[in-house]
Design a protein that fits this description.
Elements (H helix, E strand, L loop, with lengths): L9 H25 L4 H20 L21
Length: about 80
């Protein structure tokens, strides 16, 4: 499994993270206006949610795993 959006260049990865963070902040502030909590605390929750979502979007799910390779066998098949 590759990255969610594929192997992104650094600039595109930074843009995806920035847009995700801004969307999280905006959603948090919007919820803060409609729920009985302050906009600052809702914005902070939006930042935390944005960080989590940005990490999940651009993370490498198989970081540290080795690539599969063929195994050599010395046994010969009978014909």
């Amino acid at each position: 499994m590759e990255l969610v959006f594929g192997p992104l260049p650094a600039l595109h990865r930074a843009l995806v993270v920035a847009v995700t963070l801004l969307a999280g902040i905006a959603c948090g502030v919007w919820l803060g206006r409609h729920l009985p909590v302050s906009e600052v605390s809702a914005g902070a929750l939006g930042v935390m949610a944005g960080i989590l979502i940005a990490y999940l979007v651009v993370r490498d799910a198989h970081h540290g795993e080795h690539e599969p390779r063929r195994v050599r066998s010395s046994r010969r098949h009978a014909r």
